[in-house]
Structure formats: C-alpha cells, structure tokens
Design a protein that fits this description.
By secondary structure, this protein is an all-alpha fold. The protein contains ten helices and no strands. The protein has helices spanning about 5-10, 25-40, 40-45, 60-70, 75-130, 135-140, 145-165, 170-175, 190-225, 230-260. Helix 4 (about 60-70) crosses helix 5 (about 75-130), helix 5 packs antiparallel against helix 10 and helix 7 runs antiparallel to helix 9. The longest helix is centred in the middle third of the chain and has 52 residues, at about 75-130. The N and C termini lie far apart (about 90 Å).
Length: about 280
C-alpha cells in the first residue's frame, strides 16, 4: 500500500479511535452523567437563587441532590424527576425557616432602638414641660431622665465651685425642673455643695435600680417578639403547607413507581376532589 493510501485509510471513520462514543461506559461514569442530568435540569436551575443579596449555594443544592440520589436510587427519567422535585420542595421549605428567622430578626433588631428612641423623645418633651405628669414620670422613673437630673445637679455644682454662685439660666432651669432646689442653702456655697453631693449620690442609686428594671423590661419585650406577627406567620404557614403537600405527594409517587418496578403489589392511587358549592 502506498503512503498516500495509508494516510487516507488512517482518516476513515472506521479507523478513528472510538473513545467517548455512546457516552460513559463504566458504571461510575454513568452515575456521574445521571446526576449531572438532574443537576442541570430546568427545575434545579430555577429553584436556586443564583445572584443578588439572597444568593443561595448551588453547591449545597447539588450536595443534597447527591445524597438523595444515593439514598433513593432513582432509575429512569420519571423517578429522577420525582427525586428532583423532592429536593426542590425541601429547598423551598428551608426558605420558610429562613423567612421566619429573617422576620423575627428584623423586629428584634429594631426593638432596642425603637424603645430607646421613644424614651429619648419623652425626655425631650419633659425638658420643655417638666411640670407635666408624663414628664415627671420620665424624669423620676426612667434612667435616662434620672441621668438628666444628675447632670443638672453636676452643672450647678460646677458653677457653685467655680463662681460661688449660680448663673441666672442654671438657677431658672433648676427651679423649673427640680423642686428640691428650693431647699438648697445657696447662701452658703460649702453647705450647698455638700447638699448637692448627697442628692447626686441618691439619684445615682435610684438610677441603677431603674436600669435593672429597664433591662428586664427590654428582655421581656424581646421575648414577646420572638414570634413573627400573625400576618407574617399566616403567610409563612400557608406557603409551608403548600410545599409540604407537594413534597409528600412526590415521595408517595416515587415509592409507588419503585415498588411497581420491583414487581411488588401496588394499590392504585386514591384521588379525592373537593368542590365548594
């Protein structure tokens, strides 16, 4: 045979290597291909959020799919579709838990800030109208209000120590906010300073008592918000119920198909339709 004929023969289809023709030939290769077909199915691509702030892990989804494939051993396209549906349902049920956690965290994270802001707003009102009943409660029964009163006494203490007397604005502020200021012997700065020291110590002790009570109140508020609101919870439960039904239906159908394939007796499925009249 000439060299030219040898080259033509080498290029004919019959003489080319057959590696890869017809797909993987080993059991291991076939198993990989079977799982890839599931992983890249339309449902598998649609159920996993691929981008954005809520991006989910395709790797976690594939790992779950591998585990269920190894456990359920689907054979044929229909069984594989049912396994994929089971994984999809479980994946979506996991979102229910994430949604519940997110709704709870959203409320709890805002709890402390909202509660504290309400108290700060009440203090702002009390500063302008200290004689009001609500203002008196804010000033004398809240650690924030008590802290403000202590600061007023400390300001008076500083002026008295530096100047020997109070400025007109501080004197007016004390008279409007602290009725006890009328009892201070201002004509004797040393005695007045001692009196103010005792009052500051007393208010600091009271402030600590209210801080402990407020900490307990905050913990109680957080505990009361550990569940989502009724509207949110109803929405989550409706979604979870729908997905759970789909999950149990897919599991039952897969079991039925596999028993039929193995030659076991299988009762026909019972379908019940409910109509509202």
């Amino acid at each position: 045979m000439s060299k030219e004929n040898e080259e033509k023969t080498a290029l004919t289809p019959a003489s080319r290597p057959r590696a890869g023709i017809g797909g993987p030939q080993t059991p291991e290769g076939k198993e990989v291909v079977k799982k890839n077909a599931l992983k890249h199915g339309l449902c598998a691509q649609a159920v996993v959020i691929q981008a954005g702030d809520g991006q989910e892990s395709q790797e976690d989804f594939d790992h779950l799919l591998d585990l269920l494939c190894a456990d359920l051993q689907p054979q044929g396209a229909l069984e594989e579709m049912l396994v994929e549906r089971i994984v999809n349902c479980y994946w979506r049920l996991r979102r229910c838990l994430r949604a519940e956690l997110g709704e709870t965290r959203k409320v709890l994270d805002a709890c402390h800030l909202t509660w504290k802001q309400a108290r700060v707003d009440a203090l702002s009102f009390a500063k302008m109208f200290p004689s009001q009943t609500d203002s008196q409660h804010t000033l004398w029964h809240d650690s924030i209000g008590l802290n403000y009163l202590i600061q007023l006494w400390e300001k008076a203490q500083q002026e008295l120590a530096d100047q020997g007397h109070l400025s007109a604005p501080v004197k007016e502020l004390l008279a409007r906010t602290l009725p006890q200021a009328r009892n201070v012997p201002w004509e004797s700065p040393e005695v007045a300073l001692q009196w103010i020291d005792r009052e500051i110590v007393r208010l600091q002790a009271v402030r600590e008592v209210y801080r402990e009570k407020e900490n307990l109140e905050l913990e109680a508020r957080k505990a009361s918000l550990a569940l989502p609101s009724k509207e949110v919870l109803d929405k989550i439960l409706r979604y979870e119920t729908t997905i759970s039904r789909q999950l149990y239906k897919a599991m039952a159908e897969l079991e039925r198909l596999q028993r039929m394939r193995k030659g076991e007796a299988v009762h026909p499925p019972i379908n019940v339709e409910v109509f509202n009249q």
